[in-house]
Amino acid sequence: MTESKIYVELLKKNEENKYKLVHKIVKEGKALARLNPDLIPFYPADCLEKISQVLLNKTSDDEEK
């Protein structure tokens, strides 16, 4: 495989992972908003930070088990 083909394949995989991550964050944000609407802040950056932290905590809890 040439370097350009390897690079294109890497970009495709990276794009798919970003797409999956965004969907996971949106899904988790919707679930958190239903449970506690006050948890989700108005500003998008704060919202992403809180949801990302919740997802990271879930991941670390799963790894500990």
Question: How would you portray this structure in words?
Answer:
It is a single chain. This protein is mainly alpha-helical and 65 residues long. The protein has two helices and no strands. Helix 1 crosses helix 2. It is elongated.
**Main beta sheet, described?**
none
By oligomeric state, this entry counts as single chain
Name the structural class.
Answer: mainly alpha
Structure summary, number of beta strands: 0
Report the span from N to C terminus.
41 Å
Q: What's the total helix number?
A: 2
What order do the helices and strands come in, and which of them pair?
Layout: H1 3-35, H2 44-64
Helix pairs in contact: 1-2
Question: Can you describe this structure in just a few lines?
Answer:
The chain is mostly helical. It has 2 helices and no strands.
Keywords:
single chain, 65 residues, mainly alpha, 2 helices, 83% helix, 0% strand, elongated
